Amino acid sequence: MARYGTALTVLRDEEEPRNVRGFFRPVNTHSWQSIESEATLLGELTRGQYVYLGPIEGDVREGDTLGLGEKTYLVRRVEIYYFADAALYQWGLCVEKGVNDTWGIQS
Questions:
Q1: By percentage, how much of the chain surpasses pLDDT 70?
Q2: List of residues 6+ apart from 77 with CB closer than 8 A
Q3: Is the pLDDT confidence value at 106 over 50?
Q4: Of 70, 86, 66, 75, which Cα lies nearest the Cα of 21?
Q5: Which H or E element spans position 32?
Q6: pLDDT tens, residue by residue, 46-83
Q7: What is the rounded (10 degree) CA torsion for 80, 100, 21, 2?
């Protein structure tokens, strides 16, 4: 992640913004692809969800905002992945703020 990850800004209420490097990509699964009528930029699907993979030290939490370029993304869910007893990385599901940032399920 440190070598190939993207620079993201973590924004949390009443804290200074901080930088973290991780991977950030649109959700793109084969089952969703088969129901889409046309391809979109970078395989992004109309569901508007994005996956974040980052280091444990990034300390990204549900409700945080990730900044990437001119856009911001609300972190809706975060989990830590382990191997044996060692925490390896964080996985998060995000949506673009102001576009699809409601907590309900989008149809």
A1: 74
A2: 62, 92, 93
A3: no
A4: 66
A5: helix 30-33
A6: 467 899 999 999 999 999 999 999 999 999 999 999 99
A7: 70
Alpha-carbon distances of 4 from 12, 22, 24, rounded to whole Å: 24, 8, 11
Cα-flanking dihedrals φ and ψ of residue 100, to 5°? -145, 45
Alpha helices in 5-57 (DSSP H): 30-33
Q: Determine what percent of the chain falls in helix, strand and coil, rounding each to the nearest 5.
A: 10, 45, 45
Token pair listed for 68:
């990437």
Quote the tokens at residue 49.
């969800």
Hunting for tokens 């699809």 — which residue is that?
100
User: What are 21's strand-pairing partners?
Assistant: 7
Structural element, H or E, at residue 62: none
Q: Output Rg (C-alpha) for the chain, integer angstroms.
A: 14
Residue type, 81: Y
Neighbours of 56 (CB within 10 A): 14
